[in-house]
Amino acid sequence: MNETARRDDPIERYLDQLAHELRLGPERTRRVLREAEDHLRESVAAAEAAGATPDEAERQAIDRFGSPRTVARRFAAEQASVLPPSVLLNLVLAVVLLGGIGAVAVGISGGVAQVMGSVFGERFVAGDTNGVTYTPARCRDFMEYEPQAPDCEAAATAHHFGEVVGYRIALGVLGICALAVYALVRRRYPYLAGVRVLPDGFVPTVGAALFGAAAALLLFQSLGQLAVGDASGVGAYLSGGIVSAVAFCGCAWPLLRMLRDSDLPRPVRA
Amino acid sequence: MRGETLKGHLDLLLLAVLAGGPAHGYAIITALKDRSSGVFDLPEGTIYPALHRLERAGLLDSHWALAAGRSRRIYELSPAGREALRTQRDDWQRFARAIHAVVQGSA
Fold this sequence. Notes:
A: mainly alpha; B: Arc Repressor Mutant, subunit A
C-alpha cells in the first residue's frame, strides 16, 4: 500500500493513532497492532457481507473496536497491575515452601543437638570455647536461670543448651506451620500448580545451593574446631551441618533426576 | 451492558468462551455477544488487554496462525486455565444461587 492510499484508509489511520497512544514496549505494541488490524479487517468483511457499504463497514468496525485512547488506557491499566494475582501467589508460595523447608531443617537440627547433648553432654553442644569468661553480674544471671548448676560455667552451658535446642525447635514448628499453609493453598487453588512462573527445578536448585553452602560452612567449622582439640560447642555447628548435608541431598537428588531426564545437549565422544 | 458492570466477571467469561476450543480475538468477542444475546457488547478492543493478561497469568496459551492471508493470534486454555475455569465457575454458580435465593425471597 502506497503512502497516499495508506493515509486514506481509515483502518490504517486508526492503527497509527493506536500506535501513538499505546505505552507498551515495541514488541507488545507490534503484537497489539497486528491483532487489532486482523480484528478490524475481519469486522469490515463481516459488515460488508451483511450488506454495509465499504465506508459504513469500516466506520462500524472502528466504532465497535473503541477509540484508540480507550483501548490504550485499558492496556495501560492491565500493565499497571504489576503482577497477576496467580503469578504473585505462586511467587509467595515458592518463598513459603523454601522458608518452610529451611525452618523445618533448623528444627530438626535442634532435635539432633538435643540427642548430641544427651549422648556427649551439654558442653559438647553449648559449651564455651577455651578462654571465654563472664563478668560476675552475668554469672549471677546464669545462676539465677539455672539454680541447680554447680558453677557459673555449667550454668552458662545449660542456659545456652536450652537456647540452642529450644529456639531451633520453635523455628521448626513455625516451618511446619508454613508448609501446612503451603499445602492448604495448593489444595484450595490446584490450578496454580500449572501456572509457569518460576523455571522448572527452581526450588530444588535454590534449596541445594543454600543447604550445600550451609553444610560446607558448618561442617568445616566443626571439623576445624575438633582438629585443634576443642570440642566445646562443636555440637551446635555439627548438628546444623549434618542436617544441612541431608537436606542438600534431598534437594540435589530430584535436581539430578530432572537434569538427567532433560533434553540438554550431551557431550559426544570423538 | 457497560464494561464496568462486567468488571470482575470478564476473566470467567473469556475462559468459558475458550472452553469451546481455540479461537482468535474476533471469534471470542463474537461468541461473547452471541451467547449473551447481545447483552455483553463491550468496546471490542478492550478484550485484548484482558486476553494478554490471562496469557501472562499462565491461564491461556497463544500462537500466530495464518488464515485468509492474514496472521492472527489464536488463544486457547492452558491446563491451568481449565482448572481456573472450573474453580471460577463453581464460585460463580454458588454466588448466583445465593443472589437468586435472596432476590426471590424479597419478591
